[in-house]
Amino acid sequence: MQGEVQELALEDLLATSFPHDTIEPVAKGVHGGDALQRVIDPTGLNCGGILWESKRTKNWSNGWLAKARDDQRAARAGCVVIVSEALPEGVRNFSMIGGVWVCSWSCVAGLAAALRIGLIEVGKSKLAVQGQHEKMELVYTYLAGREFQQRIEGVVEAFITMQSDLDSEKRSMQRIWSKREKQLQRALSNTAGLYGDLQGIIGASMPLIEGLTTTAIESDESPSQQLISA
Prior knowledge:
Strand content: 5-15%
Distance between the termini: 133 Å
Largest sheet: 6 strands, mixed
CATH topology of the largest domain: Trna Endonuclease, Chain: A, domain 1
């Protein structure tokens, strides 16, 4: 009766201290501690469980540790705590022994709060990693999908069109430049011919015009043109 009263007191203490958590009593005869505290963060995320087992005896037994670890694995709890009036030698309030937390009644609330914080942080980390995996899968699906292919095709087509327009503009400008060059050469040739005719008529009194002298004109001609002139 005293043991059952202590178990109920433990459940009541946990439920009062952590109203967001779920306190599940372990039925009698079922393998797995006395109460399972499921830690729920403010967002409603289940961050794991703390398995509690209370002992009301005058002497401590190291055999409780192995059983507590087995119960923890069975319950899939993140932590396991033995609350006992009799503590192991050298332990005054609480300590971890062989992967099992051991504490006195006066430390239940404080130890529970500390363990909760650790489980919540671990839960957030797992959720963050899970989110990264989901995002990576979404990115891979997008890259392997038809939509991404169409996007790339649109970008490539735009670049091809721009390149084609640029090449067309270059060819057009080259035609214009070639046409202008021929026109200028024709105008220069006619002007030089006119100058030569006037020089033949007027003679030495004809003023010299730079660029229209025979030497200047021959120097402006290409080698092929000079050969033809020769």
